[in-house]
Write a structure and sequence with these properties.
The protein is mainly alpha-helical and 151 residues long. It contains 7 helices and no strands. Residues 41-143 form the HTH-type transcriptional regulator MT1864/Rv1816-like C-terminal domain.
């Protein structure tokens, strides 16, 4: 009963885990600024995958289970911060010429949709590649090439 008195109810406990999960994801995707903006974006995508592989139950809670509940402003802010990091990295890659100029939020949504889909399938056991990590990196390469400036 002590857990529920601290968090109010089961939903409160799950929301606390949700917030902590996004805080941990934010730490996991922190990439050194010594890399070029495009390499930093690529490394962040790989770090996102690794976080999900290392924490499959938490990842499921963050991206599947909790989306069915009414989230507090704190929980929404925690989730939004991670996407904001992706938008910032896309914007930096656009500014450096690594990605074509455009709407960084739209491009970030495209990237997130692709990497989230790939990671979700991998966690669910739906994968056919012999080397899943290399396959994911190749998928990110293809995605970023598709967003690169046209020659």
């Amino acid at each position: 009963m002590g857990v529920y008195s601290r968090f109010g109810n089961k939903d409160g406990l799950l929301e606390a885990l949700f917030v902590r999960g996004f805080e941990a994801l934010q730490v996991a995707i922190e990439i050194p600024r010594t890399l070029s903006p495009l390499r930093r974006l690529h490394a962040g995508c790989r770090a996102y995958r690794q976080f999900a592989i290392d924490n499959p139950q938490l990842y499921h809670l963050m991206f599947e289970q909790m989306m069915l509940l009414e989230l507090s402003p704190e929980a929404k802010d925690a989730a939004t911060a991670s996407f904001g990091t992706l938008v910032d990295r896309v914007h930096a890659a656009m500014d450096s010429g690594g990605l074509a100029a455009g709407d960084s939020t739209d491009a970030a949504q495209q990237i997130w949709s692709a990497i989230h889909g790939a990671v979700s399938l991998e966690i669910a056991g739906v994968h056919f590649a012999h080397d899943r990590e290399a396959n994911f990196a190749a998928m990110v390469d293809s995605l970023l090439r598709g967003l690169a400036p046209r020659a």
